Amino acid sequence: MSAFDARTAPVVQPKKLEKKPIKFSNLLLGAGLNMFEVTTLGQPLEVIKTTMAANRTDSFAGALRRIWQRGGVLGYYQGLIPWAWIEASTKGAVLLFVASEAEYYAKSFGASDFVGGISGGMVGGIAQAYATMGFCTCMKTVEITQHKLAAAGVKPPSTFQTFMNIYRKEGIRGINRGVNAVAIRQTTNWGSRFGLSRLAETAIRRATGKDEGQKLGSFEKILASGLGGGLSAWNQPIEVIRVEMQSKTEDPNRPKNLTVGKTLRYIYSQNGVKGLYRGVTPRIGLGVWQTICMVALGDMAKEAVEKLTGDKVTAKH
């Protein structure tokens, strides 16, 4: 290039980083998608997964029979009201707000879109755990695992009696038992789901000959989200540890004052490596359904809201 060409060549300015506003419509969208997910397939898969993780000698069919004997069809929705609904209606808003802030600051320090997105998802997942999910997952697990009382002929206490009994005996710490395991699960969940879904989208674009950044069709989006969600079940041992820490099943061999490390050693000593992966099949199904709802259906919902309002929705799942 000549000196003249160099002087006259246009200077490309770097794209200015803009902080995206958090909109009320985004919060409603996140809460609505979470409520849809948990009320359809989410809670039944959660109950199956938790039952298998708590009863690690049960087969998949055995867990289904155990749940059916506990309450028929309604047994699969145990813990839905109010804990799963409270969790679903709040965790989406928490994830949206915190993840958006974390992504902005990550990019302001020079992170790429990919790294910024994963960073936002991980920080948002941690915030979900400590702000709202800790006590909700604890109470859901308590309700699902206290069925032995009924089997012994003792009528289990109601939802709020259970909550108050734990609070009176153990305080806030008891209500949030297992929250550290929930935090580890959430940060690895959302980091994996965002990252693996985006990698699957890239692979689908290459396979179909689409350019980078070109929009995927609805089926392609659902396929990418399903792959990302299913593969994110690699962290199932953390989920089994969380269930054991929150379980009300009595076992004289179980250590008192469980930590993540103590629980890991206890499960391994009782059930080996297989015990750490109990419930992985329904967990894969749950991960696929959650990610389809929050990534694929979320993108479609955002586009629909955008068309209706004429405003660009900047929600992050």
Automatic annotation (TrEMBL):
Tell me where it mainly resides.
membrane
Which superkingdom does the taxonomy of this entry point to?
A: Eukaryota
The answer to whether UniProt assigns keyword Membrane to this entry is yes
Q: Which SUPFAM superfamilies match?
A: Mitochondrial carrier
Q: Per the record's keyword annotation, is Oxidoreductase included, yes or no?
A: no
Give its localization: Membrane
Q: Return the PANTHER family for the record.
A: CITRATE/OXOGLUTARATE CARRIER PROTEIN (PTHR46982), CITRATE_OXOGLUTARATE CARRIER PROTEIN (PTHR46982:SF1)
Q: Please identify the protein, giving its name as recorded.
A: Mitochondrial DNA replication protein yhm2
What gene does this protein come from? YHM2
